[in-house]
Amino acid sequence: MTDTATTGPLHGVRVVELAGIGPGPFAGMLLADLGADVVRVDRPGGAGLGIDPALDLTNRNKRSVLVDLKAEDGAARVLDLVERADILIEGYRPGVAERLGVGPDACLERNPALVYGRMTGWGQDGPLADRAGHDIGYIAVTGTLGLVGEPDAPPAVPANLVGDYAGGSLYLVTGVLAALHHARAHGTGQVVDAAIVDGTAHLTTMIHAMFGAGVWQDRRRSNLLDGGAPFYGCYTTADGGHMAVGALEPRFYAEFARVLGLSEAAPDQFDPARWDELREAVAARFATRTRAEWTELFAGTDACVAPVLSLAEAADHPHLAARGTFTTHEGRVQPAPAPRFSATPTAVRTGPALPGADTAEVARDWGSGAR
Fold first, then answer.
1. For residue 116, with 0-12 CB atoms within 10 Å meaning exposed, 13-18 middle and 19 or more buried, which class applies?
2. Which of 5, 27, 162, 310 has its CB surrounded by the most CB atoms within 10 Å?
């Protein structure tokens, strides 16, 4: 077996990650999980996340050097790494990297083939570009937050998964890998402006298509996929647990209705005028058994019903356990790298990189002055 067959499809790609919080570190972790040699440039005193670096799983599979970018030689040390890198990612507010001497112009002058990835909430330009923000604000203005929750209550907050990570990290990684492909074909690097507002808005493309076609109402819990349909939502069980139902197609709904024990007199699936009545009937049935009992009854069916598990329970789900969706490294249960590759499998190779722990090793391996 070759070396690349055990270290992921990005083996040989060098990435400099300027330390930050949220979507930047997650993007760096994804690149590292895929086999890239990600060197995180940590600042003295840490990035301010408030978590013990030894427990920060988003820094797994990386190495760390400690550089004070405000010091006289700080920018020069980073540029030494940039000269040998394929990708740089940073998550500062617009203009900060330039003031620190490691902006796109300085980096591309040093390495014309570099892909310079910029991760922000608002983007590099626009009236809010220099304003502070967080996930909840970014998804609010894109219309995405307004999709989630009950119609007569404030929108439900979907943690920071939709903005920071789906609309942010994943678009940054897609962008820098696309730009890397171009750089290797043409020898020319470029700047990738990954804004969470842009990515999150892009995620709603199908909803906009449905809205434009007149099959999506612009209010919460009134549609097929937002909990409006009684056959696509969550229900409480007798023990206070919950079951998730996604029985959209008629054949799956028929199986769902059979296992649930809905009577022949139940309202028709696709009669929105009677959805409230159907929802009450479904809720009443789920309330008669525990989550475990319903899970067993729906097991082996195509009813598209699943138990709603907690974070602590998820790793023990039989399907996820069989696939190894979660893994244990150094005693810590964590999501395994995704997606999967037949020829270049990925793995959690190392635990979270401790700030500055790899400075000498990186200087040796990269032949740089990051010492």
1. buried
2. 27
For 362, phi and psi rounded to 5 degrees?
-65, -40
Q: How far apart are CA 359 and CA 176, in angstroms?
A: 25
State the Cα–Cα distance between residues 329 and 246, nearest whole angstrom.
Answer: 34
> What token pair was written down for 125?
């330009």
Please give the DSSP secondary-structure letter assigned to residue 54: G
Positions marked active-site: 134, 164
Is pLDDT of 48 > 90? Answer: no
**What is the residue whose two structure tokens read 């570190």?**
25
Q: Where are the extended beta strands (E) located within the chain?
A: 14-18, 37-42, 62-66, 87-90, 115-120, 190-195, 232-236, 242-246, 305-307, 326-329, 332-335
Alpha-carbon span 120 to 110, nearest angstrom:
24
Tell me the C-alpha distance between 95 and 347, whole Å. Answer: 36
Distance (Å, whole) CA 64 – CA 59:
9
178-188 per-position pLDDT tens digit: 999 999 999 99
Are 341 and 9 a contacting pair, CB within 8 Å?
A: yes
Q: What is the mean pLDDT of the chain?
A: 95
Q: What is the pLDDT of residue 265?
A: 84
What is the secondary structure of 121-173 as a DSSP string? SS-SSSTTTTS---HHHHHHHTTSGGGSS-TTSPPP--TTIIIIIIIIIHHHH
Query: What proportion of the chain, given as a percentage, has pLDDT over 70?
Result: 96
96/121 Cα distance (integer angstroms): 14
Query: Residues 97-149: pLDDT tens digits?
Result: 999 999 999 999 999 999 999 999 999 999 999 999 999 999 999 999 999 99
List, in sequence order, every beta strand (DSSP E) within 69-114.
87-90
- Residue 268 has what DSSP assignment? P
Tell me phi and psi for residue 119, to 5 degrees.
-110, 115
Write the DSSP string, 328-358.
EETTEEEEPPSS--SSS-----S-PPPTTTT
